[in-house]
Inverse folding.
């Protein structure tokens, strides 16, 4: 079960637009087969720091998600509003 933590560092004047795209991403992704968890968080101390936390039944489902229409459309839109490159960590559950 892969778990992903993806951090986005949004330009301060673009937070509202980025959150709109991110919420659409969550709504669409939560409908996907194999999605166990897919949530969006905002840093309590920095509203321009958005974090997706997700868990998938398998790498196969994660790969399908990564090639979905909404991923292909929304991730570049969010990236375009960032002041620095996103940081994505992938973890494998051990226990």
């Amino acid at each position: 079960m892969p778990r992903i933590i993806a951090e986005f560092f949004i330009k301060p004047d673009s937070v509202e637009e980025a959150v709109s795209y991110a919420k659409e991403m969550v709504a669409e992704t939560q409908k996907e087969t194999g999605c166990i968890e897919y949530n969006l968080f905002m840093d309590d101390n920095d509203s321009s720091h958005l974090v997706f936390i997700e868990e998938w039944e398998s790498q196969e489902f994660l790969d399908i998600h990564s090639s979905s229409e909404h991923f292909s459309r929304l991730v570049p839109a969010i990236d375009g509003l960032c002041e620095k490159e996103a940081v994505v960590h992938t973890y494998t559950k051990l226990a």
